[in-house]
Structure prediction request, 494 residues.
Amino acid sequence: MLLKRAIELLTDSSVVCFIDALDECEEQQIREMIQFFEHIGELAVSAGISFRLCLSSRHYPHITIRKGLGLVLEGQEGHTQDIANYLESELKIGQSKIAQQIRSELQAKASGVFMWVALVVGILNKEHNRGRMHALWRRLQEIPGDLHKLFRDILTRDSHNKDELVLCIQWVLFAMQPLSPEQLYFAILSGVEPDAVSEWDHDEITEDVIKRFILDSSKGLAEITISKLRKVQFIHESVRDFLLKEDGLGNIWPNLRSNLQGQSHERLKHCCLIYMSIDVFSPLRIPENLPNATSQHAIDLRKSATGTFPFLEYAVQNVLHHADVAEGNGIAQETFVRSFSLDRWIKLDNLFERYEVRRHTDKISLLYVLGERNMSNLIKAHPSALSCLEVGEERYGPPLFAAMATGSKEAFIAFAEALHRGQVIGCRYYEMYSQYREDKNSPNHLGRDFKFLKRKDILSYLAEIGNEMIFALILESWKANIDSRGKNGWTPLL
Prediction:
């Protein structure tokens, strides 16, 4: 509605909207978007406003636009010439007669698909650099003309560093957010050569070394973005489609097919654990008592940590996420939960925390962290989930309230499940719980500004926010006395 209002106010001005990669949206989202912009177009025409919209998409899904011009890029003369120009400048195999024949054959075989051309140019340049000019024609004939078949050929042609390739793909697919080149380098190294993981020596591991490592690890299917904050991504969304939607990953590596998500997140979890285990405190000279999170000293420490151990912040902040997703996909995490080095994690997490109030004490429980970070699957795997009512030294009090304060709905439900276990089917607590799961508007949010005061008890807080279900469950679990008075002399119902 904001965009609609802005366009209505254009008067004498004009605007052109460009929307790229329409095909990467869900089909229903695409149709709703087109319908919205058709409506905007009609309003603009009736008001005499100059409004133009340019959409780009692959051929699928096909979307009908009632009023507009369509342009198929592959059929344009300029597109064909662009491919010819690209081959002339990027296919570095000389200007001999056979070289020109290869360029002509490559262009004909491409069928106008620029991405196919770019990948094949890299393959042929590699053959040429190895002095195999005589093999170029044969290699071109072997390369599949279909883009997805070409992806498969690239990934399976040799078994060189296969483990590295799989891990690289898993990181690009399943990382919580796109990794920087330095992060990805050390993330992969943590999984394939853990003994080689140490602080980053910028003189030895240069940007060029990292760039070549990623190119080799991904077999050219991943690239580094050209931006101020560089990230690693697939060279095109069609690579992701091939690996996931077309089950390319499962077809190439059948051992991943049965549980790709679970196995992948389990492996990424192990990479994080390995990187977190290296000695970072000595090189960084981190004091026993950290300076205030907003102080310049703390800012300098975080900057030094990121420069020396590029993957550390991601590993600390996401190791639990990967474990949680793995558990949710059937990879048991009970051993991980029991053995997790919470003391070390707290120190590292506090190091990277930018707000003093969000740091944790050294007495925090893992259950509190899981509630605060909405790790519902790990809560279910925790052997003492009923401890969600224990009040510690953290600002939100018990783990249950940590989930409520941060709006962690799934974690809150996981705690509620722990409390309602053992209730008899048919009893009113069981029925209340069942209704609660269906009710998305049940009061369970305290807000991040909430601070637990020990002069009030848990039941008093729950009575205030009006969550009848959890109040009743706790009352039953504790066999609590609703007439008991807190330090302020109040009962839970007053």
Q: What stands out?
A: The chain has a mean pLDDT of 84. The CA atoms of residues 70 and 238 lie 22 Å apart. The longest helix spans residues 27-46. The beta strands are 14-19, 50-55, 222-224, 232-234.
